[in-house]
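Preliminary data (for renewal application), NDP complex.
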Amino acid sequence: MQYRRLGGSGLKLSALSLGTWLTAGARLGRGEMRELVALAWDHGVNFFDSAENYAHGEAERVLGDVVADLRLPRDGFCVSSKVCFGSAAQPRPTQAGLSRKHVRDACHDALRRLRVDYLDLFFCHRPDPDTPVAETVRAMDDLVRQGKVLYWGTSEWPATLIREAFDVARAHHLAPPTMEQPQYNLLHRERVELEYASLYAECGLGTTVWSPLAFGLLSGKYDAGIPEGSRMARPDAPGRLDSPDGQARLARARRFSAVAAELGVAPAPLAIAWCLGNPHVSSVILGASRPDQLVENLGALELAGRFDEPVWRRLEAVVG
Ligand code: NDP
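Predicted structure:
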């Protein structure tokens, strides 16, 4: 495994981490998730990502139980949660968003479900137009001072709002956001590469990026149709392929698979290796619903060092 600093902070996260969206507590129970977490840990993964709304809190419960059952040392792993959407299917007005009240309650709920006494990373899962940024920054700063959160950050916030949070924190000597959690893959690059460009050096922003396979599309599994039991086969699948946009994304993914075949490697680890090539990426969060997928994806580390610049530029060109 390779370890990378989380932006300007001293925290070292594994370059590949493991997420729990649509898996832990949803499709996967404790036994299956235990296998994935143990496998990841044995390969040097030290960061596990979760959120209050994943499977309505069940993802955190499953992850917490599994980590406790495996007796992973608390000083050796990092765990995250995210606040904004609420954990109930239809949260009450006080149980969602980024108000001081919900930020505090969501943190306490995550600590209980994850069975830890502090969160290493705590994200504001989306911006909340109904809460002033300063209120959220103060609420996060309180949790940091209380030792319940080590690093707080944002997920899918526009650069202007991230900068506003920094400015508020600096002006009032509060803990600033340390990291963002944006989508980043060969089909979705703009925010990480352009919109946030100035934030890395000026604010020391780190990134823990999500959906490196564009919801599984870059694994090549959809090139010839939608396999039964796969994510896209779900009626509520995110990023569905039956729209014109979905078809265009699929065409790009097919071109990517063709180059992977030419190179003699599987598409999934190649797509993840491409993400690792960006030095502003602190950790790439892997999604896997089976151990064989996770093993294949962990191979990205080796591929990242195998190919040189012209290969990566060619892959970018081929997906457009
Ligand atoms: P990916 O784009 O990597 O998709 C992962 C899915 O693709 C797997 O669950 C599996 O789906 C399929 N897959 C993975 N590897 C392979 C393989 N080698 N061969 C074939 N199929 C494969 O990532 P996710 O979308 O799952 O995101 C990763 C993590 O990022 C999440 O778990 C979550 O922690 C975080 N996240 C954060 C968000 C945010 O807003 N902050 C939003 C979304 C995710 P299947 O087998 O079911 O087809």
